[in-house]
Structure formats: structure tokens, C-alpha cells
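As agreed, record copied across for absentees:
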Amino acid sequence: MRFTVAIDGPAASGKGTIARALAVRFGFAHLDTGLLYRAAGVKAAESGMEPAEAAASLGEADLARPDLRSGEAGEAASRVAALPAVRAALLAFQRDFARREGGAVLDGRDIGTVICPDAEVKLFVVAAPEERARRRHAELSAGGDSRSLEEVAEDLRIRDARDAARADAPLKAAPDALLLDTTEMTIEAAVAEAARWINEQLRKA
């Protein structure tokens, strides 16, 4: 069976947590596509390679680096993700992953609109800016990052603007995506709502 769940949304909206939980729940493979861009950005910065060249040369070891969850890696990802050549270099990898046998969940910013426009399920996960900043600040603080809540909120604002304004594959909801606002939802409730929608589509498959 080939069944694709495409999950998009801004940083710290909860999409990654939801995607991982759904993959476990349904036995689907999971790809955090943001890690691809984080790895490409970090590799380009460290090696001096052109971003598209770095993206094309990524291997599993590049995606396993623990520092890809850092704020610096997130900034690097947002910068290289705006480059059409980088997105093109990673397109085939993501599409192949999405149509693997057994089902797949992909989360990112252009999965439902560009990578998998024919996905059986599309979710667009959002949350209020202040809640997203609180979540990201807690996550970064736990990892030893000393930035203030205000600094984190400003970083998110800049990333949102960059992601929404880029000419190639801007962040936006697919017309047929289910909107999931997690501002006041527990992760359990958000996963349950997403799972309900997936089950409905599985029954039709």
C-alpha cells in the first residue's frame, strides 16, 4: 500500500511532533524534510560548498547530526530553503520517500503544495505566534541555548516572513488541506484529530 500524509506549517506549530506520533500510530515511515534543509545549510556553511551542491551530496550521516536541531541550523535551513536549486536537488528524494510501500508521513513547509500535491491526506498545522515562541524557547533552553523569549519570537517572525515570501514554494496551505490549530490543544488531542482524518481517507483507499 502506498499512502502519503503531507503535513505543513510554520516552525514550532507542532507539525513535527504530530508527524512522528502519526507515523508510529499507523506504522508509516516518517521524514522530517526540515532536516534535509538544515543538513544542507550546515554542510554548505562548514564546507564552503554551494548550497545546491551540499544538498545533492547529503547522506544518512549528515541527517544524523544532533546539532541539526540547534537554532543556528534552523537559520541556515531557512536561508538555503529559499534557493530554487536547493529545493530542486532535494525534490526527487522527498517524492520517492513519500510513495514508498507501507505508507509515509512527511512534514515540512511545501509538502502538500509542491512535493506531494496528490497526497491522500494533507494537514496544515498552525498555532498563535506567542505560543509558538514559547514552545521554541522551551525547546532551545532545554538544549542550552541562552536566547531570550523575545529573541526567539523575533527569529520566528523573520523566518515566517522569509518562508511566506520566497518565490519558489512559499509556505502556504494546500486548498484541500485540513487546518489544525494547536494553540490550545494537547498533543494527544491534535494527534487524535489528525488520526481521525487519516482513518477516513484510509477507508476510501
User: Anything to note?
Assistant: Residues 37 and 81 are 6 Å apart (CA to CA). The domain at 4-199 is CATH 3.40.50.300 (Rossmann fold). The chain has a mean pLDDT of 94.
